[in-house]
Design a protein that fits this description.
- The complex is a heterodimer of chains A (about 325) and B (about 300).
- In chain A, strands 1-2 form a two-stranded antiparallel ribbon.
- Chain A contains 13 helices and 2 strands; from the N terminus they run αααααβααααβαααα.
- Chain A starts with 16 loop residues before the first helix and ends with a helix.
- The longest helix of chain B has about 35 residues.
- Chain B is built from 11 helices and 2 strands.
- The chains are: A mainly alpha (about 325), B mainly alpha (about 300).
- At the A-B interface, helix 5, helix 10 and helix 12 of A face helix 4, helix 9 and helix 11 of B.
């Protein structure tokens, strides 16, 4: 199974460079394209999509590839955002300090929460991760020094070599972070560690009997996902200029899950597709009707009933029907 | 003085616990029998509260409103089960979470379209709006007493239904081993539609009881849904007895924590810190309780399966 000479198993994940590279090049040129079209607003939207794609991808690592349905992932995003906000409140502005710290804080929280949560399985795991996220949410609400319920406005953006990035620079930072995380995830999944992780998703009992370390593997994945979510939180705080407890609410965790599932559980690009589809849908429906959530709900339900493996699976459904 | 306060908190806790039990009973059976995560359960509570508030305004009587709203919600629950939820049973938990999350969004928006964004008022009957003197110098709101009585009566009826009737026997069989129950000739599909309708009715009853105390508004189902999930996870999924014990525990801990913790903190750490920390600790207390229970008993206090 871990023999690299072997034909690619279903546990291998390729970058699909022939499709991904052109998309990536378009994304690189996006600020120039929007500037030419006088539609700069879309850079902000694209940044938001990249940030949520990063957060959803980190959830996909444990949910899609590890089979661990965590219902508290927004807590790690929020913890990263709060770390950036609190550091800035105390005068620490350089991103080179703030962002790694945010990743470390989120990773440490994920490690602790994962250690306790991974004792349980299935539905109990879903609920206990939710419970821990709620604890962090209420903790943030009670931090009166840092805004409490009202949230914490940021004085500015984290600086790079003394310069605060403008919207376009922030877009490139988000795109870069997303790309790096996808590359890292792909390497990780094809390495021995990733194969074990996916094996545990398929059959934990057998993997344990074979002598693979169950808890250590899952906990490592959980911690890595927490770190990536913390990075997404740093970016989110920088984009919004604001940190608030609502970033950690359970509905936010639900939304991240929706993005992952909508895009396709266990597809490398699934969560990117899902985040883009979700946020674009929100944007389009939000402009047409005040009751856009009704449309969103109907679309989600349609996806669940008609494309159970998410948008990323539509292509294979289509090709199969052609054959 | 503190004895009276303790008594009052105990009654508040009992009241919250019993209402949580009404919500958790349906949720835990759905979970236990069909292994189905239903995030839309809180929506039934919201729909129930809105229907009851509307029917109360239309008929001028709280009691008629309650009856009509509970019946309407039970019907809505059955329709929901037959049309959508039934298709999700055989799917994995992730899909169920997504599907029921979609229903939750749709319910919220539909309610907002019909009734608007402003909270609705639901008034308890005038005869019950005042306080009752339970002990010398101890007054307790009459409507809150009614909630406790209704909650206790419903819990008792539910207990009799589950332990003494044929339907209850099938429900218990389905919860502990669905495949065996099927093999023994239970029509699990029909049984489940019935359980879902009953669960919806219980949700609506809780909505009608809590509606006058909390606001009837869009999104009211979400916060209480989380509490109901905490309850059934503590109690053990699929267990009615676990739901009752879990609900009372959560109700007591939550109510008690909110009033007693600030006093304890103030005497220990002084007023300034107490004002900041006590509400936070009080609101995470039930999650600490849940994490602690799961740490020692990963399947809850009264696991129904095996």
């Amino acid at each position: 199974m871990v023999d690299s000479n072997n034909a690619r198993t279903s546990l291998h994940h390729t970058l699909h460079l022939r499709a991904a590279l052109p998309v990536f090049l378009v994304l690189l040129a996006l600020p120039q394209i929007t500037a030419a079209l006088h539609a700069e607003f879309y850079v902000t939207l694209a940044t938001r999509i990249a940030i949520f794609a990063l957060a959803a991808s980190s959830l996909n690592l444990i949910l899609g590839f590890g089979g661990l349905v965590s219902f508290g992932h927004a807590a790690f995003v929020g913890a990263g955002a709060y770390t950036v906000g609190i550091l800035m409140q105390h005068g620490t502005v350089p991103a080179a300090i703030a962002w790694p710290t945010a990743m470390l804080v989120s990773a440490a929280l994920a490690c602790l929460i994962g250690f306790i949560s991974l004792r349980t399985q299935g539905v109990y795991f879903i609920m206990i991760t939710l419970a821990f996220a709620q604890m962090l949410y209420y903790l943030a609400v009670s931090l009166k020094t840092y805004g409490g319920d009202d949230g914490l406005p940021l004085a500015g953006r984290n600086t790079w070599a003394g310069i605060a990035p403008d919207d376009t620079a922030l877009y490139y930072l988000a795109l870069g972070a997303l790309t790096l995380c996808l590359l890292f995830t792909q390497r990780l999944l094809n390495a021995r560690f990733g194969q074990v992780l996916q094996g545990l998703r398929e059959n934990p009992m057998r993997m344990q009997a074979l002598g693979f370390p169950v808890l250590r593997t899952q906990l490592t994945a959980f911690t890595l996902a927490g770190a990536m979510a913390g990075l997404a939180g740093s970016l989110l705080a920088n984009q919004g200029g604001f940190v608030s407890p609502s970033m950690m609410q359970w509905s936010q965790s639900g939304m991240l899950m929706v993005m992952v599932i909508l895009g396709g559980v266990g597809h490398l690009y699934g969560s990117v597709l899902g985040a883009a589809a979700f946020l674009l849908l929100e944007e389009v429906l939000g402009h047409t009707t005040e009751h856009w959530q009704l449309g969103l709900g109907a679309m989600l339900l349609a996806v669940v009933l008609l494309a159970p493996r998410g948008l990323a699976s539509l292509r294979s459904v289509w090709t199969r029907s052609q054959a | 003085m503190s004895g009276i306060l303790l008594l009052e908190q105990a009654l508040n806790g009992l009241q919250l616990g019993l209402m949580l039990f009404l919500l958790a009973a349906g949720l835990t059976l759905v979970f236990g029998i069909m292994d189905m995560v239903n995030l839309a359960h809180g929506s039934l509570y919201m729909v129930g509260a809105y229907l009851i508030a509307t029917a109360t305004q239309a008929s001028g009587s709280y009691w008629w409103g309650l009856a009509a709203g509970v019946a309407g919600t039970a019907l809505f629950g059955v329709l929901l089960e037959v049309s959508v939820l039934r298709r999700l049973y055989r799917r994995d938990h992730v899909t169920q979470v997504l599907g029921t999350f979609a229903i939750l969004l749709m319910c919220n928006e539909t309610v907002r379209m019909i009734w608007g964004s402003q909270p609705l008022s639901l008034n308890p009957p005038a005869a019950l709006s005042g306080p009752v003197e339970l002990l010398p110098d101890f007054f307790y709101p009459a409507f809150r007493l009614l909630i406790i009585v209704v909650g206790l009566a419903t819990a008792l009826l539910l207990y009799l239904l589950v332990t003494r009737t044929r339907l209850g026997m099938q429900v218990r069989a389905g919860a502990s081993n669905r495949d065996m129950a099927l093999a023994m000739g239970t029509n699990v599909q029909r049984l489940f539609t019935a359980v879902f309708g009953l669960g919806a009715a219980l949700c609506a009853l809780a909505g009608g009881m809590l509606g006058p105390l909390l606001a009837v508004q869009v999104g009211m189902g979400e916060s209480i849904l989380i509490l109901a999930f905490v309850v059934i996870v503590i109690g053990g999924i699929g267990s009615i007895r676990g739901a009752l014990v879990g609900a009372l525990l959560v109700g007591m801990v939550d109510s008690g924590g909110r009033t007693l913790l600030p006093m304890v903190f103030e005497s220990l750490f002084g007023a300034a810190l107490a004002a900041d920390a006590a509400p936070a600790v009080a609101s995470i207390l039930i999650y600490v309780l849940m994490a602690a229970v799961l740490f020692f008993k990963p399947r809850g206090l009264f696991p129904a399966h095996g």
